Amino acid sequence: MGRVAIVTGGSRGIGEAISLALKEQGRTVVANYGGNDEAAKAFTERTGIPARKWDVGDHEACIAGCEAVVAEFGEVDIVVNNAGITRDGTLHRMTYEDWNDVMRVNLGGCFNMAKACFPGMRERGWGRIVNIGSINGQAGQYGQVNYAAAKSGIHGFTKALAQEGAKFGVTVNAIAPGYIDTDMVAAVPEPVLEKIVAKIPVGRLGHAEEIARGAAFLTSDDAEFVTGSTMSINGGQHMY
Ligand code: NDP
């Protein structure tokens, strides 16, 4: 059995593409998901990749979920923290619940998964963690104080944990996608989307597979010397 990977939110959108890319690399992949059983079932039928449900924002559920993966597949060598949600609204409309849900799932999920899987990687002297941030965590975005804060937090989390993992062969990197044509972006109203696309130098939305290729590289043996970095994959929309 090859290296074992968990991709959170791995049954749809960007996560599905990452699950497939890692499988093509010879990894044993388990896709986690949050609640959409129908999508997860269809994903497994399409890809042959097992899907396991737990809420990444729930600490105990993450520990139990990862323990079950270890019991079934032996260990966890690679974690891609991809699960994410939006609860958009300007600050004066945003509820505490909107804030908390996004922080709990998007940022809390990275902590919970790292707590469950980092110790084993450290002990074995090899590990790869890739956290999916966002262009909106780098640049901010109107109506997204919760999402921008959580994603920006992911970038800080990545750099801090990279320093802890470096001497144990565990790399920790982030990918900051720009606008990618998934269900999440399909929820953006058409006129808003048109304005967004107009600001992308490459002139189009990105594809999930373009993010997946970045994740495949960052989780490969070839990326041993890459840690604490943020790979921006955004068609040139934000350069820094
Ligand atoms: P989708 O909404 O298409 O898919 C989200 C995935 O996350 C689903 O598999 C969903 O599971 C899962 N998920 C949601 N909440 C939880 C939870 N609490 N526990 C476990 N799994 C959960 O999102 P995208 O593919 O568009 O986005 C993937 C990641 O990329 C996110 O982190 C997003 O913030 C980030 N991103 C996306 C961009 C874009 O343009 N699309 C741009 C920048 C960043 P289920 O199917 O069960 O609901």
TrEMBL record:
Pfam families: adh_short_C2
GO biological process, one term: poly-hydroxybutyrate biosynthetic process
GO cellular component entries: cytoplasm
Presence of keyword Transferase: no
Keywords from the UniProt entry: Oxidoreductase
Coiled coil (residue ranges): none
GO molecular function list: acetoacetyl-CoA reductase activity
Entry EC number(s): 1.1.1.36
Residue span(s) of domain Ketoreductase: 3-178
PROSITE patterns for this protein: ADH_SHORT (PS00061)
Keyword Oxidoreductase annotated: yes
InterPro entries recorded: Acetoacetyl-CoA_reductase (IPR011283), KR_dom (IPR057326), NAD(P)-bd_dom_sf (IPR036291), Sc_DH/Rdtase_CS (IPR020904), SDR (IPR050259), SDR_fam (IPR002347)
Family to which this protein belongs: Belongs to the short-chain dehydrogenases/reductases (SDR) family.
The name this protein goes by in its record: Acetoacetyl-CoA reductase
Source organism phylogeny: Bacteria, Pseudomonadati, Pseudomonadota, Alphaproteobacteria, Sphingomonadales
Gene name per UniProt: phbB
